[in-house]
Design a protein that fits this description.
79% of the residues lie in helices and 0% in strands. The chain is mainly α. It has 2 domains: 105 residues, no CATH class; 44 residues. It is elongated.
Length: 154
């Protein structure tokens, strides 16, 4: 199990960095002034210069991707209920995501900024979870239908 988690983390880390970089490109395109914005301005202030901020964001994006990928092993715990899997995954991912989002200044450092962040985080998590659950449920129903057809006399 540890080997599987480590392997997933190693695969997830560069994916986290790639997604983070893609997001900065999309944000820069959305601003539309021809400049690239690799990090939020507050992070540059916190880190002293843009290069330090970019390096910190890259390292934390690697960690972010590794944490989410490693946590995916939870979905393979066949002796756990879907509720236990979901709550455990949500807690682990929340604990990994919040400090990174906070230090990267992806949210305002106010009570309302933190509440808004968690509201958006949980909404996105719920949407993804429901779509995955619905997709898996359809696959299971299809497998069960095929099993039933194959076992029916006829």
């Amino acid at each position: 199990m540890r080997k599987k988690i480590l392997l997933r983390c190693l695969i997830g880390a560069p994916i986290g960095l790639a997604i983070s970089t893609l997001i900065t490109i999309i944000i820069s395109l959305t601003v539309g002034d021809g400049n690239y914005y690799p990090v939020v301005p507050e992070l540059v202030s916190d880190c002293g210069n843009e290069m330090n901020a970019v390096l910190l964001q890259a390292l934390l994006s690697l960690l972010y991707g590794a944490a989410w990928a490693g946590a995916s092993v939870i979905w393979e715990m066949e002796n756990w209920s879907i509720l236990l899997q979901t709550v455990t995954h949500l807690v682990i991912c929340s604990l990994a995501t919040f400090p990174i989002a906070y230090f990267m200044r992806w949210m305002k450092h106010t009570a309302s900024g933190i509440l808004l962040y968690f509201g958006i985080f949980f909404a996105i998590y719920l949407i993804i979870w429901l779509s995955q659950y619905s997709s898996m449920k359809k696959r299971v129903e299809e497998i069960n239908r095929k099993i039933h057809e194959n076992n029916s006399p006829g």
